[in-house]
């Protein structure tokens, strides 16, 4: 199953090269964020134009379909282990995503909206098997949806687990010129840490089974401040986004 997904992703990547080359090669957007401790911003910034290869190895070439700028940062001490690492990224694309706009406008859940397929602004976006805690929100720069995701390359699906759980924000700007994608690794004190061998993992064969798991129900219903970092605090940082 994993091999078939990898082959399919490779075919999508090749197809994306042709489609991306047809998009206008606009300059990557310039943007600023107001970042305060315990959040921090690294000096790492990536800028690509439509059609640029953003990643490649011996078997894949991943291409962005729109000009994009990405900034990276962290939360709290950077010496923590993987389950407690909270790296984040904010991407601003020079294009308006109809899929993101439709997700905000709809009353359907993330699975019905096929958000597990990803935004598809880059050919490497394979999506997530989890779209938990979907919320629709407004920001000073526009509006969007927020949710908790989790990825895997295995055939079995984990219940929500620290070290893999990610908080995502998909948004579009009010002027319909840009798409904003933000991600941060989050944890919850009641979830199992990845790599913790004292607690056996709860693995599932289907997404439907995952959604019935007690830990899935926990992250759906708990307060946003119970996560580390607080989901509300990350939203507030992202609300400071200004595109120049």
- Integer-rounded radius of gyration: 18 Å
- How far apart, in Å, are the first and last alpha carbons? 44 Å
User: How would the global form be characterised?
Assistant: globular
Tally of separate helices: 5
Strand content: 25-35%
Helical residues, percent: 10-25%
Which regions contain 5 or more consecutive residues with pLDDT less than 50? 1-22
Structural class: alpha+beta
* Number of separate structural domains: 1
User: Strand tally, please?
Assistant: 13
**What strand order characterises the main sheet?**
2-5-6-11-10-8-7
Mean pLDDT equals 87
Largest sheet data: 7 strands, antiparallel
The ordered H/E elements are: HEEEEEEHEEEEEEHHHE
Report on the structure:
By secondary structure, the protein is α+β, with helices and mostly antiparallel strands. It has one domain. 20% of the residues lie in helices and 29% in strands. The chain is built from 5 helices and 13 strands. It is globular. Mean pLDDT is 87; it is low at 1-22.
Map the helices and strands:
Blueprint: H1 2-21, E1 31-32, E2 39-48, E3 53-56, E4 61-63, E5 68-75, E6 88-93, H2 98-105, E7 132-139, E8 142-149, E9 157-158, E10 166-173, E11 179-185, E12 203-204, H3 207-211, H4 214-221, H5 231-239, E13 242-243
Antiparallel strand pairs: 1-13, 2-5, 3-4, 5-6, 6-11, 7-8, 8-10, 9-12, 10-11
Distinctive features:
alpha+beta; 7-stranded antiparallel sheet; 244 residues
